[in-house]
Design a protein that fits this description.
By secondary structure, the chain is α+β, with helices and mostly antiparallel strands. 34% of the residues lie in helices and 15% in strands. It has one domain. It starts with 5 loop residues before the first helix and ends with a helix.
Length: 95
């Protein structure tokens, strides 16, 4: 969920190394979705974790906004994502 550069997020894949594609787009949708808590654990290349709070969760569809966005958008808005370090994640996961 956390590509480090445009090569790791490029579609189609152009690297033989780590590749995240544009999965980061779902992170922005999950941030806007009601009825869940969402964090990205800062391990590996970002591991998304969702806590479901209720029975009715409808994913916020931001495709109209994100469909043509590229790495520049992701990088410029990275601060809006709920990224937490592993130490903080351990507490968040059990509470």
């Amino acid at each position: 969920m956390l590509p480090r550069n445009w090569i790791e997020s490029h579609i189609p894949i152009i690297t033989s190394g780590p590749w995240c594609g544009d999965v980061w787009k779902i992170a922005f949708e999950l941030c806007e979705t009601k009825g869940i808590k969402f964090k990205i654990l800062k391990i590996d290349h970002g591991v998304g974790v969702i806590k479901v709070l209720g029975r009715k969760v409808i994913l916020k569809d931001l495709n109209h906004l994100l469909a043509h966005k590229q790495f520049n958008y992701y990088y410029s808005n990275l601060g809006k994502l709920p990224i937490i370090e592993w130490e903080a994640a351990q507490d968040w996961l059990i509470n």
